[in-house]
């Protein structure tokens, strides 16, 4: 492991430290600060010539700042003669803009993929992409992990009975089916109609949820509008306790306020792919770590071993 180097930007240094703890290596030293006018200043303080470098940097809010930090760090590492650079992006920002669904709009996910490759990334390690086809936007290897195992372990320890796994929309059926298979649970779908980009009206439930404990599974929760509308719909359909297992807790805008107003959601379970700010901490928000999952993937990539067992 002497050829392995793990760096972190300012997006989520705690996750990088936890990964290093799992790998039993020291977090490599880099200065990532700002010039007086606000431009990003980077200096790599360790010798990384010929090393296999991993940069842990989710592109979470502030997305533009964290993305630019990642790009500039990769450029610095490339010019410092590193052997290989892997961008470890637990939360891949701009993933929701992955197609032209309206006239004259960008495909920003493809643009970000191009930027990462041009900056010097040799491969990408990410988790729970908003759309799986984003892997195809890259011309370099992409290892796409899933947090389903982390959530499965947590909910199995709760020993919940009469489970039903709920997809918040038709597009999430494949993910929900993976959870349902692991839990040995039934499957339901929320049929929703979006009135505007920020407002969703949940219409009705496809499947049986009456008298059951429901777990809504999704890749991210931003404003929470869709999630909490779904919780209300499940309660009206007769569900008992309602939980949510969401990979990326963006929790922007009025998400915490909506959580306070939604008394029927028993627990919102997220991962630490995005750092949870102090002002967003809540008694009904549970954060699970993905440090071991990412650490194992980094170890296998470094040792040129298969990571396919981690894709399940």
Describe the structure.
The chain is α/β, with parallel strands linked by helices and 312 residues long. The chain has 2 domains: 4-146 and 291-310, Rossmann fold (3-Layer(aba) Sandwich); 148-288, Rossmann fold, CATH 3.40.50. The protein is built from 8 helices and 14 strands. Helix 5 (173-183) links the parallel strand 8 and strand 9. The longest helix has 17 residues, at 63-79.
Average predicted confidence as pLDDT: 94
**What would CATH call the architecture of the largest domain?**
3-Layer(aba) Sandwich
Oligomer: single chain
Side by side, the strands of the main sheet go 10-9-8-11-12-13-14
Task: Give the SSE order as H and E letters.
Answer: EHEEEHEHEEHEHEEEHEHEEH
Given helix and strand content, the structural type is alpha/beta
* Stretches with pLDDT under 50, minimum 5 residues: none
What separation lies between the terminal Cα atoms?
Answer: 26 Å
CATH class of the largest domain: Alpha Beta
Question: What is the overall shape?
Answer: globular
Please tally the β strands and state the result: 14
Per DSSP, the total helix count is 8
Helix content: 25-40%
What is the rounded Rg?
Answer: 20 Å
Short summary of the structure?
By secondary structure, the chain is an alpha/beta fold. It has helices at 13-23, 63-79, 108-119, 148-158, 173-183, 225-236, 255-261, 291-302; strands at 4-8, 30-34, 40-44, 52-56, 84-89, 123-127, 142-145, 163-167, 186-196, 199-206, 213-221, 242-249, 265-271, 285-288. It has a seven-stranded mixed sheet with strand order 10-9-8-11-12-13-14, sandwiched between helices.
């Amino acid at each position: 492991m002497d050829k392995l180097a793990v760096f972190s930007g300012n997006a989520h240094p705690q996750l990088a430290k936890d990964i290093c703890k799992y790998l039993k290596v020291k977090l490599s030293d880099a200065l990532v600060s700002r010039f007086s006018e606000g431009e990003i200043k980077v200096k790599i303080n360790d010798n990384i010539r010929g090393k296999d470098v991993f940069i842990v940097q989710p592109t979470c809010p502030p997305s533009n700042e964290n993305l630019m930090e990642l790009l500039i760090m990769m450029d610095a590492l490339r010019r410092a003669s590193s052997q290989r650079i892997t961008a470890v992006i637990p939360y891949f920002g701009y993933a929701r803009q992955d197609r032209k669904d309206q006239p004259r709009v960008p495909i920003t996910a493809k643009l970000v993929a191009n930027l990462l490759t041009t900056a010097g990334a040799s491969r990408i390690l990410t988790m729970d992409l908003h759309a799986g086809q984003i892997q195809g936007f890259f011309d370099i290897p992409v290892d796409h992990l899933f947090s389903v195992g982390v959530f499965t372990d947590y909910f199995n320890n709760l020993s919940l009975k009469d489970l039903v796994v709920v997809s918040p929309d038709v597009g999430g059926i494949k993910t929900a089916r993976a959870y349902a298979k692991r839990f040995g649970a039934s499957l339901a779908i929320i049929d929703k109609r979006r009135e505007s980009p920020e407002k969703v009206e949940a219409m009705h439930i496809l499947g049986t949820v009456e008298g059951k404990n429901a777990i809504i599974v999704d890749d991210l929760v931003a404003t929470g509008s869709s999630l909490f509308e779904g919780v209300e719909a499940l309660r009206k359909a007769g569900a008992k306790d309602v939980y949510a297992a969401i990979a990326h807790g963006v929790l922007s805008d009025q998400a915490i306020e909506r959580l306070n107003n939604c008394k029927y959601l028993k627990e919102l379970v997220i991962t630490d792919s995005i750092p949870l700010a102090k002002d967003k901490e809540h008694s009904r928000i549970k954060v699970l770590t993905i440090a071991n999952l990412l650490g194992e993937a980094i170890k296998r990539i470094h040792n040129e071993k298969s990571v396919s067992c981690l894709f399940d």
